[in-house]
Specification:
Structural class: mainly beta
Number of strands: 44
Strand order of the largest sheet: 2-8-7-4-5
Radius of gyration: 29 Å
Number of helices: 9
Shape: globular
Largest sheet: 5 strands, mixed
Strand content: 25-35%
Distance between the termini: 78 Å
Helix content: 10-25%
């Protein structure tokens, strides 16, 4: 107020300088951003005084005059520059960001996600831990007011959802496909796709719902309540619909990833050969649970984790390090390609896995999510250069949705939908709203806290430079389907085991070599392999670093929370072949039950160390705690149907191969007849 009064009473300026001031050269662009379809004219103008204007369009073309039109022949993100050549010799500029986008497909591509738009722009969110979908809405015409939400119970563990404009379909891990009316937010039907089928991705395409059945390796087509199922390949998860359907194989084989297509010509995702450096690493793209297509339907985006399973003392001669084990990656490939070009695969430094990708509405930019570091990066879709980022975007990000200048983020472990307002590339995104997704938290406080830590790589206590989380090898507690060379850790080749159904140490020691006797011993991996500073104090670490020595339990609330989450994973994944198991139990009881007794199907117990050499130990099997490895801890067979490959070194591709590899007094696998192997396989895959 004082400054305002001073201005009001200030002496009038000398009007003799007015003409000189008005003649001062100046130029201002009349827009800061322009979007135009490739091959179409864009009108650009600038207000200028004191000279002549030349436009530079960023594609090598120029034109004179303050007002102009231009057509770009190639899609891309350009900076158009209006240059004023002032009469006094100066050169002044103004810029306009020009987004030249490709012609959208006649039918806009869609894909499965944990987020989807519903009726009137509302956002539907899958909340798997709570068996809910939450609908977030705005009052029409009043988007400046806080959003409101409604929670709707649905089928068990909803994974993803999709809309056809009239209905919303929700794929649930319990085998259900729920359908909801978008106009009324009411459930209109629920289909049973089969126990143990584990539906995951769902999309609307050609008047039908298409659902990936992760448990059986199939694709279900649902039309007017009728279900037709077709085999597609192992471990299908994400699904995208464009000119045809594209389905991701979640866990890749070590020699390459796959995208299944309905033309029966799979897309190969090759191993990146390296060499490893501080900014890139070799490896296979894997853990692909979502796909996305560009708006023109011609480019497929593949968010992934790149696992460097080729590195290790036995293979490359180089030890695994915190920055060479796993790395975030984004595949960008033409939909007609047979093989991805690994050389243009985008690797993200100092980041864990890319779990989700969302193109901007015109396709010129991409938002990608790193759940471990709680980071979202905005990339130029043509150069893949980073043009912006959002930090502290939430725990456990599982989905992104882009609408005009608004980005929706499913921060699943914060139980929140975060809504960001986006400006021009390079401008800071503004968190406009944080909408709670659940009223009643379904998990115990320590379990939820531990689940957040399990997924974290950005916490320096867990990992150095954001690379490795527990979830990097155990997504949602599962196994990654890969075999790692842990020779530099004093072990050997080690096939990742699933944590599902084990209830922490509920089935005895941990790891193939039984080198951990409490879940809290993962502090050793955190400090050593991950490069983290640890969840224990250094004093407690000094007392407990021996994994079979003094207990770590009770020394760190966060480490105990991590253990609480792992211990909560007490239910193995339901088998689609469970009904077959009882008919073949006799052969199993006679040949296998001595080491795999019911009900846990393992003889491992913390009360007694029991290691068995079943004829599979090799020179590559390594050691145990600095001494010779004389045998292996017995793995449970519960959920084994879902965890290929098999054996400690991953050398058995199938259950049949694992059975035939056994050479014990009770089980000479190589000498079994085909009928017995079939009976044993049928029993085990039904557990």
């Amino acid at each position: 107020m004082i400054l305002l009064l001073a201005a009001c009473h200030a002496p009038a300026p000398d009007t003799g300088d007015t003409a000189a001031a008005s003649a001062a050269p100046a130029i201002v662009a009349n827009a800061t951003r322009v979007e135009v379809e490739v091959g179409h004219e864009a009108r650009l103008s600038a207000t200028a005084t004191g000279g002549e204007v030349t436009w530079y369009f960023g594609d090598g073309e120029t034109r004179e005059g303050a007002r102009t039109v231009h057509t770009w022949a190639e899609a891309g993100n350009y900076v158009a520059i209006a240059e004023l050549r002032a009469d006094d010799g100066r050169r002044l500029t103004a810029t306009v960001g020009v987004e030249v986008f490709r012609t959208p497909a006649a039918i806009r591509p869609t894909w499965s996600s944990t987020l989807a738009f519903g009726y009137g722009g509302e956002v539907w969110v899958a909340v798997p831990d709570a068996d809910l979908v939450t609908v977030v809405s705005w009052t029409a015409g009043e988007e400046s007011t806080p959003p409101y939400k409604a929670e709707f119970p649905t089928c068990g563990t909803p994974r993803t959802l999709a809309s056809d404009g009239v209905s919303m379909a929700i794929a649930c891990d319990d085998g259900g496909l729920a359908q909801w009316d978008l106009a009324t937010d009411t459930e209109t039907g629920r289909l049973d796709l089969g126990a143990g089928t584990h539906p995951y991705g769902v999309v609307a395409h050609e008047s039908a719902w298409w659902v990936t059945l992760a448990g059986t390796g199939e694709l279900a087509e649902v039309h007017d309540g009728a279900i037709e199922v077709t085999p597609i390949g192992p471990d299908p998860r994400g699904i995208a619909a464009g000119d045809q359907l594209y389905v991701s194989r979640f866990r890749s084989a070590p020699d390459g990833g796959e995208i299944y297509r309905t033309d029966d010509v799979p897309l190969t995702l090759p191993v990146h050969p390296g060499p490893d450096s501080d900014t890139i690493a070799g490896g296979v793209p894997t853990l692909i649970q979502q796909l996305a297509l560009s708006p023109d339907g011609q480019t497929l985006y593949v968010p992934a984790l790149q696992a460097n399973v080729g590195r290790g003392l036995l293979g490359s001669g180089e030890p695994l390090t915190f920055e060479s084990t796993v790395r975030a990656a984004l595949g960008v490939v033409g939909v007609d390609a047979a093989t991805e070009d690994w050389s243009i695969r985008k690797q993200l430094d100092n980041q864990d896995r890319v779990v989700a990708v969302a193109p901007s509405p015109n396709g010129n930019y991409l938002a990608i999510a790193h759940p471990g570091t709680q980071t979202i990066q905005i990339l130029d879709a043509f150069t893949l250069d980073a043009v912006g980022s959002i930090h502290d975007a939430g725990n456990g990000i599982t989905g992104l949705l882009w609408q005009t200048d608004r980005l929706f983020v499913n921060a699943s472990l914060d139980r929140a939908l975060r809504i960001y307002e986006l400006g021009a590339p390079g401008e800071v995104a503004v968190l406009a709203w944080t909408v709670p997704l659940v009223t009643d938290e379904p998990l115990a406080d320590d379990v939820l806290a531990g689940k957040k830590l399990f997924a974290a790589s950005g916490d320096p206590r867990i990992a150095k430079d954001g690379y490795i989380a527990c979830a990097s090898c155990h997504p949602d507690g599962e196994n990654d389907g890969l075999t790692w060379d842990f020779t530099s850790r004093g072990e050997g080749l080690r096939n990742t085991t699933s944590l599902l159904g084990r209830a922490g140490t509920g089935m005895g020691f941990l790891h193939w070599s039984a080198n951990f006797d409490e879940v809290q011993d993962f502090e050793n991996d955190i400090r050593n392999a991950f490069g983290g500073t640890g969840l224990l104090t250094d004093a407690d670490w000094a007392e407990t670093s021996d994994t079979l020595g003094a207990a770590k339990s009770g020394r760190s609330e966060d480490l105990d929370a991590l253990a609480a989450y792992v211990t909560s994973l007490a239910t193995p994944p339901a088998s689609p072949w469970a009904a077959d198991a009882t008919e073949t139990s006799a052969a199993f009881d006679a040949l296998c039950a001595s080491c795999h007794p019911a009900p846990l199907y393992t003889d491992s117990t913390l009360a007694e160390l029991r290691l068995h050499d079943v004829g599979t130990l090799r020179d590559t099997s390594g050691d145990r705690l600095g001494a010779a490895l004389v045998g292996l801890d017995t793995p449970t067979l519960l959920g084994a149907w879902a965890t290929p490959p098999y054996l400690h070194d991953g050398s058995a591709a199938t259950l049949e191969d694992a059975i035939r590899a056994h050479a014990t007094p009770d089980l000479d696998g190589a000498g079994l007849d085909a009928a017995t192997v079939s009976a044993l396989t049928t029993f085990v895959r039904g557990l």
